[in-house]
Amino acid sequence: MAHAHAVKRYTGLLDWLTTVDHKKIGILYLFAGFFFFIIGGLEAVLIRIQLWEPMNDFVSAETFNQLLTMHGTTMIFLAAMPMIFALMNAVIPLQIGARDVAFPFVNALGFWTFFFGAVLLNVSWFAGGAPDAGWTSYVPLASPVYSSTHGVDYYVIGLQIAGLGTLIGGINFLVTIINMRAPGMSFMRMPMFTWAAFITSALILFAFPALTVGLVALMFDRLFEANFFDVSQGGNAVLWEHIFWIFGHPEVYILILPAFGIISEVISTFSRKRLFGYSSMVFATVLIGFLGFMVWAHHMFTTGLGPIANALFSIATMLIAVPTGIKIFNWLFTMWGGSIKFTTANLFAVGFVPTFVMGGVTGVMLAAAPADFQYHDSYFVVAHFHYVIVGGLVLGLFSGLFYWWPKMFGRVLNETLGKLFFWLFYIGFHLTFFIQHFLGLMGMPRRVWRYLDGMGFNEMNLISSVGAMLMGLGTIVFIINMIVTGLKPRNASNDPWEDGRTLEWTIPSPPPEYNFAQTPLVRGYDAFWKEKMEGKNAMTPAEPLGPIHMPSPSILPFLMSLGLFIAGFGFMYHNYYIGIGGLVITFGCMFFRSVIDDHGFHIEPEELQDKGVKA
Amino acid sequence: MMNRWHVLKRLMPLLAGMVLLLSACGRADLSTLKPQGPVAEEQFGLMKLTILIMVIVVVIVFAIAVYVIIRFRRRPGDKSIPVQVEGNHKLEIIWTVIPIILLVILGVPTIQSVFGLAKDYTKDPDAIQVKVTAHQYWWEFEYPNLGVKTAQELLIPDDAVISIEAKTADVLHSFWVPSLAGKIDTNPAGNANTMFFEAPKKGVYLGKCAELCGPSHSLMDFKVKVVDRASFERWITAQKAPVALPQDQELADLLTNQCLSCHAIGDKGAQAYPNLTGIGSRESVGGILVNTEDKKYDNEGTTEENLIKWIKDPQAVKPGNLMPTVELSDQQIEAIAKYLAGLKLDY
Fold first, then answer.
1. How far apart are CA A363 and CA B38, in angstroms?
2. Where do the domains of chain B lie, and which CATH numbers do they carry?
3. Contact criterion met (CB < 8 Å) for A273 and B84
4. pLDDT confidence band for A2 (50 / 70 / 90)
5. What is the dihedral of CA B98, B101, B105, B107, to 10 degrees?
6. A18: pLDDT strictly greater than 50
7. Which residues of B touch A369 (CB under 8 A)?
8. What are phi and psi of B134, to 5 degrees?
9. I want to staple A48 with a disulfide (CB 3.0 to 4.6 A). Which of A129, A238, A465, A479 is the partner?
10. What is the structure's pLDDT at A3?
C-alpha cells in the first residue's frame, strides 16, 4: 500500500505526552485548567477566611497580598483560559466537521507552553514567595525597587511562557475555523460556539502581543536593569497601566465570548429551538470583540487622563451594553415558545442569563466616569467582575462541561450530583458577591488584608465568606461527580441529549481519532437538526470512504516547552549557563522539527472502526 | 397584560426597599451613599440615576426570564417540536433602540459631570491649595501657600474649595475620602493629578488608600477634619509656632537624637517622614490606631497608649512600614509618648 508508513504508537503516559490529537489535548487542557481552578479556589477560600472577621490574624499581610495576586493570576491565565481552550479543542473541529485542528503539532505545543508557564508561576510559592503586586502588577510596586523578592520575576516569566501557548492556540483556531470547515459550512452556518471561538481567537491574536511586550519590558526592568517604567530614570509608570489594559480589557472579552457561545448552544438545544436571531447574535459578537479594544482606559478613570479621555471612554464603554443586550434578549426569546428541559447543563445556562445581566448593568454603572471615581478599586468592582467572570464565564464553562462531557469522555455526568453542584455553587456565588456591591459603596477598598471593627463591614463580610464556602462545597460535589461518573461504563450514545443540533452529535461519543470517517455535507445552519427534521439520522457524506491522513505523535512540543521552563529559571537567577541551556533545548527541538520530514500516517478504510480516545 | 402589570406593582415595594436600603447603608463619615459634600453629592446623584435605569433593566429581564422558565418548561414525555423561529426584526429593533435611548439618558449627565468635576482650581486664590504626597504607608499634606506641612490628618475649613494636587513619593496609591469625593490616583511626579472638593459640614471624615501599595495597604487610613474658618486660621498659626522641647534634658536629647532625625516637631527636626507637630490633637496614631478615651476595639486607645504601642513595635501595627524599632527602654518610650501626647494645638 502506497500510503502505509510505519508509525510509532505510544501508550500510557507517553501517549499523553506525545499526543497531537485535539480531543486528547482538550482533555489535557481540561484537567490542567481544573487543577489550577482548584488552586485558585483554595487561595480564594483563604482570602475569605482572612476577611471573615475584622482585624483577623489568619494570614500575614505579605501572604495575603501573594494570595490575592495569585488568585487573580491563576484564575484568569491558568484556570479560565485553559478550560476555554479545553472546550474549544474538544468541540470546534467536531462542530465544523474537521478531522483535527489546522496545526496539530502546534496545538500540542500551545498546551505544553501553557502548562510549563503555569507550573513555573506556581513554583514561586516554594521559592521565597509568590508575586504580590496584584494580577495587574502595577509598577512601581512591581518594579525591582519596591519588590525585591523573585515573586514578580516568576510572574513576568511564567506569564510570558504561558501567554505564548495562548497566542499559539488562538492562531491555530483562527486558521482551523477559516480553512477546515466541512463542505457547505459557510460562515453564516457556523454554530454560535464556533463563531465565539473564532472571534475570541482574533482577540487573542491582537491582545496577547501587547501583554507580551509589557511583560518583556518589565522583565528587562527587573532582570537587566532597564528603565522602561522607572520614573527616576525617565521611564513612565502610567505606561504600564496602558499596556496592561490594552491587553487586559480585550482579555475580558476573550473570556466571556466563548461563554456566550456555549450558552447559545445549550439554551437552543434544551429548548428544542433554533437560536433566536442568529445573524444578529453573530453581528453582536463581532461588535463586542471590536468595541472591546476601544475601552481599555475605563480601568484608568482615576489615573488622571483628563476629562476628554474619560468622557470618550465612558461613552465607548456604555456602547458595549447594546450588543450585549441584544444577546440577552435573543437567549430569552430562544427559550420563548420552546420546550425547555432543565438538565444540569441548562440550569447553568439559564442561571447564567440573569446573573450575567447583573454583572453587565454594574458594568454600565462603572462606565460613568464620575461615579466610577467612587466605585473604582472598591469592593463594588470586586463584585462586578466576579459577576461577569464567575457568574458569566464560569457558569458558562460548567454548562459547557456538563453538555459536552459525554462527547469528551463517553459518559454522561450524574444529573443528581450535577444539580446539587449547581444549586450549591449558584447560591454560594450570589451570597458571596451580591453583598460585596454594598461593601464597596460603603467605603471598603479592594485588596485589603484587614478592615477595622466598627465600620459596618462585619456582617456583610461574614455572609460573603459563608457564600465562598458554599461555592467550595459545590466544587467538591463536582469532583465527586467526575469520579463517580468515571467509574461508570462508557455508554453514551452519539446524541445523548437527543436534541443535538450540530455536527458533533452525529459521531460517536467519544469520537474516533479521525472524528469523521467521511466528511459530512452541511446543508444549513444547525446541520444535524436539519437532517433530523427530514427524517434522517446521519449526515450525507461529502466524500467517498478512503484512507485518512493523520499527524504523527511527537514528544518535541513537550521538550520545547520544558526548555523554556528551564531557561526561565536560569535567567531569573542570573545563571546564564542554565538559561542558555534551556534555550538550546527549545531551539534544538525547533531545528529537528524543521529538518526531519514527518509525513504522518494514513488510516486505511478497512482499519476504520468507531472507537474513541481513551479517557 | 393585566397580569404583568400586577407583577410590576408587586415589585414596586421591592424597588422602594432597595432605595431605602441604599440610603441607609454605612457610616456617614465613610459611605459613598451618605455624601457630605457637593462633589460626593453629584457623584451620588449619577450613581442613583444609573442604579435606577439598571434596576429597571434587571427587573424587565428577570420578569421575562421567570415567565419563560415557568411557562415553557418541558412536560415529561413531551416529544413535540416547537416552531423554529429565526428571529423577529421588530423585536430586535426594539431591544437595540431602547438601550441606546437609555444610554443617551445616562451619557449626557455623565459627560457634563466629567467636565464639571475636572474644573481646575489650582490657580484659584480663594481655594485652599493642598499638595498630597502619598508614601508607603502614610499621607503627607502640604499647604504650599500657607507654609505648613502635616501628616495623616488633612485639616480644612468648611467654607472653601479644597484644591488637591496629588502625587506619590514611591509606589501608586489612591486618595479617597468616600463621603466627600471620589478618588484620584497618586502617580509618580510628572503625572501628578488634581482634583477638588468641598466639605460644608464640620466633622471628621475617613480617608482610605484605594490602590494596592504593599503589605500595609489596608492600614493606610487618614482623616479629613473640617473646622470653621477661624479655627483653621488658628491652626495654621499654631502649626508654624515654635515648639518647646521637654524640660528634662535627658528626654530632650533622646527626642532630638532618636525622633527628630526623621520627624519634625514645629521648627525642629527633619521633614522626610511624618510631621509630628500637634500630634496630641490628632484623631489617630500612625493613621490606624484611633485615639479615644472610650476604647471599644483593638485598634483604639488613648493617644498615649497608642503612641507607646506604635513606638514599641511599628511593624506589628503596620507591616512593611519604614519606621525602625528603636532601642529604647519602656520608661523612655513612655516618657516620649507622654510628651508627644501633650503636643496639642490650640485651634
1. 25
2. 27-69+88-239 (2.60.40.420), 249-341 (2.60.40.420)
3. yes
4. very low
5. 110
6. yes
7. 110, 113-114
8. -90, 140
9. A465
10. 47
Q: Sign of torsion, CA A538 A540 A543 A549? A: negative
DSSP-derived 3-state class of residue A479: helix
CB contact under 8 A, A445 and B118: no
Which of these, B306, B314, B309, B297, lies nearest to B279 by C-alpha position? B306
- Read off the pLDDT of residues A484-505 as tens digits, 9 standing for 90 and up: 999 999 999 999 999 999 999 9
Phi, psi of B298 (to 5 degrees): -55, -35
Percent of chain B residues past pLDDT 70, beyond the cut: 93
Q: How far apart are CA A394 and CA A66, in angstroms?
A: 23
B276 secondary structure, DSSP code: -
What is the pTM (predicted TM-score) of this model?
0.94
User: Which pLDDT score is estimated for B346?
Assistant: 87
DSSP of B303-317: HHHHHHHHHH-HHHH
What's the CA gap between B290 and B219, in Å, rounded? 12
Do the Cβ atoms of B108 and B191 come closer than 8 Å? Answer: no
The DSSP bridge pattern shows strands B289-291 and B300-301 to be parallel
Cell numbers placing A62: 505579605
Question: Is this complex scored with an ipTM above 0.90?
Answer: yes
Determine the residue of chain B that is closest to A65 in CA distance. B215
Q: Cell triple for residue A464?
A: 460573603
Consecutive H or E run containing B149: strand B148-151
B23 has a pLDDT exceeding 60: no
From chain A, pick out residues whose CB is under 8 angstroms from the CB of B292.
Answer: none
3-state class (DSSP) for residue B21: helix
**Do B172 and B164 meet the contact criterion of CB atoms below 8 Å apart?**
no
- Based on its alpha-carbon atoms, the radius of gyration of chain A, rounded to whole angstroms, reads 24
